[in-house]
Every structure is written in structure tokens, then in C-alpha cells.
Amino acid sequence: MANLPHDREPRSREMKVLILGLARTGTSSLTAALQKLGYKPYDWPDRCMLGHLPRWTEGLQAKYLGRGYPLEVDEMDQLTSDFDAIIDTPCCLLVDELIAAYPTAKVILNYRDPHRWLESMQDTVFAAARWPSWRILAYTDPHYAGAIVQHHITLWDEIWGGDEGKRCLEMFVEHYNYVRKVVPPERLLEYQVQEGWGPLCHFLEVEEPKEPFPVVHTGAQFMRTAARGWRDGVGRSIRNVAVAAVCVWILAHGFYWGQGYFRDE
Question: Is the pTM of the predicted complex or chain greater than 0.70?
Fold first, then answer.
């Protein structure tokens, strides 16, 4: 049985903000903005680099597909202890769990026009995921590329049905309507990054920076980042395969010479 909230281990940082909008709705720009405001957001790159992505993916599988183990409050606390904001997939799909776990955190629902969102997804996330070599890298670089591939399969293929058109658009609308339904209005800010600092800083009750609002990870920037991640995966795969080959060579020669030794005896 999970511990009650007052029994949790103390966090390094209090969870202050839950950003529940989906990917490609200005999440990277919003992350950069929150960092400038002094927050420490737990973003997609953090989950990948810290090795947390498989556990969040399993949390989605438990909730939506009925397999694996759900993420309990204590474990979410452990994974996010060093951060005070949560943003982007797959975390934003665990709406009920997050708002229950962090009842004092403010909620930002970052959004964009659904049809423009779908076009962006088709040009970036879905396009990069179709590179056939990802499936090979999933085996040769399991801890990074494999985790990303499994997340994509779980979320976009299994949970959202694998449709990159009408069904995907329907799921987008359903997600946003659900967040609006379950989050109290006084705790919620519906926000587009094009609105800049004003609404965001007013909602968070912080002073507006004088510098321009950051614009990060446009479509072209996303594809460059994806390509860099792919190249890194290839590099790790080469090293992993080389190490495996050397280990096999050593074992094979050890077996061979061992057999010869016993034959001589």
C-alpha cells in the first residue's frame, strides 16, 4: 500500500507547477521560460538522460493498457525530487495521478490549434519516428534508443491507436477537455507561448523578466535534435557491438584453449 502524502520522504524541491499540455505545444520554450523564472522543470531530456523514461512508459502501460506496475506517489516523488515542475510526455498523460499527488501545485495547460499541432507532429515526432534504423538501434542501444522507441510504440501506437490523422486529433481534443474538467479553474492557466511573459508570470505570481520570451525547438530545430540523437545512438551502438564482439571472442578463445588443455591432460 502506498504511503499517504504526509508519510512521504521529504523532497529536495517542492513541486510547484504541473504542465499538462502535450508535446509540440511550446513545451521546450515553456521549459526555457520557467528556467529563466528560477524553476527547475523535469523535461523529456531529463527523463532520457536520467534513465527514467522506461518507468514512466510502464506507468502509462499500467494505466491505459493494464500491464506492468503503476507509478505510485512515493515513486513519482523519488523520480522528480530534484525538480519543482513537470512538463511534456509521458508525464502529462498521467493527469489524475499528478494532480492528486501534488494538490498545491499550479497547473498550466499549454495548447495550440489542434490542426496546427497535428501538422507539427506529422512533420517532426512522427517523421523522425519513421526512420527505420530506430528499430535496429533499439536493440543495439537499449538504454537510450530502445527506451525512446518503446515509449513511442506505447503512447502513439498502442494507446492512441497508431493513427497519425483523425484519431490522433480526437485524442488531442479529449486530453485537453479532460484536463479542463478535472482541474479546478482557480488552479489552472490555459496558455499559449505566443502570449509571452504576461499571463504566465501573473499566474505564477513572479516578476516579468525584461528579456524576450524564449523561442525554442521549432520544427527545424526539433529535426536537428532528433538527428543528433540518432547519431549518438549509432555511436553507442557501435561501441556496444564492439564490446560484445570482444567478449564473444575472449569467451570463444578461452573455451578453445580450455578444451585443448583438457585434451593434453
Answer: yes
